[in-house]
């Protein structure tokens, strides 16, 4: 292996692969697939390699063999990285064409890595951060209790009359038309709506008041200019409504028995419940304050290391990760990217720009935090990485040993844990500035 530093930004690792070395990888590639090979006249699993190559060609195994060879070389590079060469990101394969590998001949290839840029740190101790008193009011606790009681409420048929009134629960079907065309997302069946809850447009809910059970009615209204679906904003629409049933909520009162039946751990009485809710609200506000303080620290570091040249390939990679994460989150909510853009009043170009800005911020932040870790000798232990791998293995049902062999995964875990440690260090060494307004 030869190492060539191209400039301050890139380094190349050149490899000369001997024929017998690559032959070992070809044999391993064949061993992986031989039990799956089916060739007429041979029993499955009994096909010899020379027979396989006669049918499929001598280069049929080259792709898998080279991928395994590449993994081995990459592992060697990462494990034997020179201290003065700080590699970042995934390498680029250069000076290589798979189709040009010939039997019984040596071949060469190179891997080009981007080097971590030199980070000139600002003064990172005593970064000013805001701190506020944490206040939880009785009203906030009561609101959480009201939510619990709402969840416990039982819906019963309305027996006093069959006319829909404010506060009743309507069970309805509806379809919306705009310019005599049914529009996407404008229909539902057996939908439950509390009249007066303002979950729908006000005119829709008030337009239903007075309807009788099984009555059908057309409700006309105009969507507000701020309506998320831009093509419908400010447009007149008509909803065809069928009121299937009318129900009322049977009020539930808070008692020790009700609390006990909720089966919360160590919560048996109303006072227990109130204390628990109070403590949870305090934790939420403490978390919110910490997130704000971290953002203040990151903004300070970014603004005071603005001369740092952020590697574009890392920005592109981070942007891809952010995009994939967003798409997965939207998919879990049955929402398309286009719909998401409509709600935020963004076009795809603006979303991409916003994504790239966040990616650049993330990479810049990570580089600065890395350098602070070096200066302060902050490290992540092998045990911490193992613990994180084990938890990931349990959460996502992935074989632990498989995770531990994935160098990129281990790097990401290490980076995440390291960033968290450095941020904790910066928070402990920050200059707290008390604000008058409490965290509410």
What's the layout of helices and strands?
Layout: E1 2-5, E2 10-17, H1 19-33, H2 49-56, H3 62-79, E3 87-94, E4 107-115, E5 128-131, H4 138-152, E6 154-157, E7 169-178, E8 181-194, H5 202-208, E9 216-222, E10 236-250, H6 256-261, H7 270-303, H8 312-332, H9 337-344, H10 348-376, H11 382-396, H12 400-404, H13 407-428, E11 431-434
Parallel strand pairs: 5-11
Antiparallel strand pairs: 1-2, 2-4, 3-4, 6-10, 7-8, 7-10, 9-10
Helix pairs in contact: 1-3, 4-7, 8-10, 10-13, 11-13
Structure description:
The protein is α+β, with helices and mostly antiparallel strands and 440 residues long. The chain has three domains: 2-115, Trigger factor ribosome-binding domain (Alpha-Beta Plaits, 2-Layer Sandwich); 154-250, Chitinase A, domain 3, CATH 3.10.50.40; 270-434, Trigger factor, domain 2 (Orthogonal Bundle), CATH 1.10.3120. The chain has 13 helices and eleven strands. It has helices at 19-33, 49-56, 62-79, 138-152, 202-208, 256-261, 270-303, 312-332, 337-344, 348-376, 382-396, 400-404, 407-428; strands spanning 2-5, 10-17, 87-94, 107-115, 128-131, 154-157, 169-178, 181-194, 216-222, 236-250, 431-434. The strands form three sheets. Strands 6, 7, 8, 9 and 10 form a five-stranded antiparallel β-sheet that branches. The protein has a four-stranded antiparallel β-sheet with strand order 1-2-4-3. Helix 1 crosses helix 3, helix 4 (138-152) crosses helix 7 and helix 10 (348-376) packs across helix 13. The longest helix is centred in the middle third of the chain and has 34 residues, at 270-303. The model has no long low-confidence stretch (mean pLDDT 90). This is Trigger factor. Its main location: cytoplasm. Belongs to the FKBP-type PPIase family. Tig subfamily. Its EC number is 5.2.1.8. It comes from Candidatus Phytoplasma phoenicium.
């Amino acid at each position: 292996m030869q190492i060539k530093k191209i400039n301050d930004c890139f380094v190349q690792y050149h490899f000369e692969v001997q024929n017998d070395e690559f032959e070992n990888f070809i044999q391993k590639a064949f061993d992986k697939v031989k039990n799956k090979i089916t060739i007429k006249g041979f029993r499955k699993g009994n096909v010899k390699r020379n027979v396989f190559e006669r049918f499929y060609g001598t280069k049929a195994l080259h792709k898998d063999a080279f991928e395994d060879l590449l993994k081995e070389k990459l592992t060697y590079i990462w494990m034997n990285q020179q201290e003065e060469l700080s590699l970042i990101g995934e390498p680029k394969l250069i000076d290589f064409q798979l189709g040009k590998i010939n039997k019984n001949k040596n071949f060469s290839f190179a891997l080009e890595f981007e080097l971590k840029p030199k980070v000139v740190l600002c003064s990172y101790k005593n970064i000013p951060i805001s701190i506020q008193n944490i206040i939880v009011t009785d009203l906030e606790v009561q609101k959480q209790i009201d939510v619990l009681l709402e969840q416990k409420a039982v819906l019963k048929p309305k027996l006093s009359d069959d006319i829909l009134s404010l506060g009743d629960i309507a069970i309805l079907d509806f379809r919306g038309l705009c310019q005599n065309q049914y529009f996407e997302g404008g229909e539902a069946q057996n939908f439950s709506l509390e009249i007066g809850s303002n979950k729908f447009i006000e005119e829709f809910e008030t337009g239903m008041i007075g309807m009788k059970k099984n009555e059908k009615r057309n409700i006309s209204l105009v969507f507000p200019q701020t309506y998320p679906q831009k093509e419908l904003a400010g447009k007149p629409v008509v909803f065809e409504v069928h009121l299937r049933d009318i129900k009322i909520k049977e009020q539930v009162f808070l008692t020790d028995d009700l609390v006990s039946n909720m089966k919360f751990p160590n919560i048996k009485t109303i006072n227990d419940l109130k204390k628990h809710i109070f403590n949870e609200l305090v934790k939420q506000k403490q978390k919110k304050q910490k997130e704000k303080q971290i953002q203040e620290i990151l903004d300070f570091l970014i603004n005071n290391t603005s001369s740092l040249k952020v590697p574009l390939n890392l920005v592109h990679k981070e942007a891809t990760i952010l995009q994939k994460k967003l798409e997965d989150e939207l998919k879990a909510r049955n929402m398309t990217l286009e719909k998401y853009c409509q709600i935020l009043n963004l076009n795809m170009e603006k979303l991409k720009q916003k994504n790239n800005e966040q990616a650049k911020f993330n990479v810049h932040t990570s580089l600065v935090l890395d350098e602070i870790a070096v200066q302060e000798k902050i490290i992540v232990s092998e045990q911490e990485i193992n613990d994180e791998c084990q938890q990931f293995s349990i959460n996502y049902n992935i074989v632990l040993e498989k995770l531990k062999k994935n160098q990129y995964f281990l790097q990401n875990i290490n980076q995440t844990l390291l960033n968290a440690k450095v941020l904790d260090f910066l928070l402990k060494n920050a200059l707290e500035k008390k604000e008058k307004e409490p965290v509410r």
